[in-house]
Write a structure and sequence with these properties.
The protein is flat, with a radius of gyration of 24 Å. The model has no long low-confidence stretch (mean pLDDT 88). 89% of the residues lie in helices and 0% in strands. It has 227 residues and is mainly α.
Length: 227
């Protein structure tokens, strides 16, 4: 990927995470920020929005680090197992264990007496559904072989990125972080091929331009030599 497209790719992901967190922050923590709107406190609204966007930038950076770590893990896994089918099977096992851990260990750590396990299952199901949707579009855009890897990324890597707010179990932060993470991760895994293609096209154009310049230079030299 060219430097220009890499910067654009990272910037778009950063902007997506910031703006999404800025908007969702008011909705998720409406009880805390509602007085700003009822009192029409523009200064407080703007400063809070800027703060939320900054937090979203942090979430986006976490997503970017997770994505590039995933690219390394994926190549490492292919190198070890030397078979896309076997590596996909391993990834599905890991996805299953991570989802189970997300439900079981959080329930054991945070559930009160007689509290239902259903909310903990619901959170894991939400992550799984989001992962399946993104994996479906990824496979449709590229090929079927990418489905499992995309699902692995959207489930396992997203949950790992999510750990800093899962441990304190603050519901506001849990929901504030998960939506930008899913959006940024989905954007990166779906849009990277597009930016790679644009980079290849730019290289081809540059190569063609250099070739034309060289050909024209030779023609000019021949014309001068024949005069």
């Amino acid at each position: 990927m060219t430097i220009r497209n890499l910067i654009k790719f990272l910037f778009n992901s950063l902007l997506l995470g910031g703006l999404l967190t800025g908007v969702l922050g008011f909705l998720i923590r409406w009880g805390e920020f509602q007085p700003y709107f009822t009192d029409f406190n523009i200064g407080a609204i703007l400063s809070t929005f800027i703060w939320l966007v900054g937090v979203g930038f942090i979430f986006a950076v976490v997503s970017q680090v997770g994505y590039f770590a995933y690219l390394f893990i994926h190549q490492f896994g292919l190198g070890i197992f030397r078979s896309i089918g076997l590596w996909n099977a391993v990834q599905l096992v890991i996805v299953t264990f991570v989802l189970f851990d997300l439900i079981y260990f959080r329930f054991q750590a945070f559930a009160g007496k007689e509290e239902s396990i259903l909310p903990y299952i619901g959170l894991a199901v939400f992550i799984l559904i989001a992962g399946l949707i993104v994996a479906y579009f990824k496979a449709k855009m590229t090929n079927r072989a990418t489905f499992v890897s995309a699902l692995f990324f959207m489930v396992v890597i997203t949950i790992l990125e999510w750990l800093p707010v899962l441990r304190p179990n603050d519901a506001d932060w849990i929901y504030l972080m998960i939506f930008p993470l899913i959006a940024c991760n989905a954007y990166q895994i779906l849009m990277l091929p597009k930016f790679n293609r644009l980079s290849m096209e730019e290289r081809e154009k540059r190569k063609a331009l250099k070739t034309n310049v060289a050909v024209n230079g030779l023609k000019n030299k021949k014309e001068k030599a024949t005069r």
